[in-house]
Amino acid sequence: MLTMYSTSWCGYCHRLKSQLDREGIAYDVVDIEQDPKAADFVMSVNGGNQTVPTIRIVPTDGSSEIVMTNPSIIQVKQALAGSGVAG
């Protein structure tokens, strides 16, 4: 499962969403301004900052989750390929 933590006004988020859509990669979007727990998670993995887009990939094989901040579409595809999560 791929989750993108985002905000409604984030240009980098809009760009990555468009790229994921073009590649046919399924994802869920969580707006950190609407979900305090999501904001807490984003801050916990970004040194206290609410940096978006933050991507979280939970592998299907039970291995450790993958978290990336402001990744390129190539980085996302590589992480998905190695995680057992279908794109």
Automatic annotation (TrEMBL):
It comes from the Bacteria. GO terms for biological process: cell redox homeostasis. InterPro entries: GlrX_actino, Glutaredoxin, Grx-like_ET, Thioredoxin-like_sf, Thioredoxin_CS. Residues 3-57 form the Glutaredoxin domain. PROSITE patterns: GLUTAREDOXIN_2, THIOREDOXIN_1. GO terms for molecular function: electron transfer activity. PANTHER family: GLUTAREDOXIN, GLUTAREDOXIN-LIKE PROTEIN NRDH. This is Mycoredoxin.
